[in-house]
Design goal:
Length: about 160
Amino acid sequence: MIRVGQGFDVHRHTDDDERVLVLGGCRFEGERGLAGHSDADVPAHAAADALLGAAGLGDLGQHFPDTDPRWENADSLQILSGVADLVRQAGWSIGNVDVKVVCERPKLAERKDAMERNLTDAAGAPVTVSGRRAEGLGALGRQEGIAALAVAVVTKESSS
């Protein structure tokens, strides 16, 4: 059996100078950070959300609620790793995850390989990342935040 899941995450920028921007486990020093209960790593959250959806295991908020102090400032790569474990415990194998990050800045090309390595290590399966601009349109185009979309494929041997 093959299943596909879609993931989405979005966080607004914060004016907190202490908050570092984290995308795909990479720290982007000097860029505005994102507001969130955890480290607000949108590519990691979108990947985790896609995996949960593909496996039929609910959503990120069910497993890692933003009301739980355990997840305050949490490393989202650990959240992604935890989700991958849940998916495997449910009998699924992860095929791959593809993530699109929508932001005007920072430019992701120079960090893309590192982001893919970090996310792949956390998921225990191939994760690809690419950046997309909002071309100045809407909240993302005005640099009010960053969003990510993801698609994940999981497989399970059918019991016939």
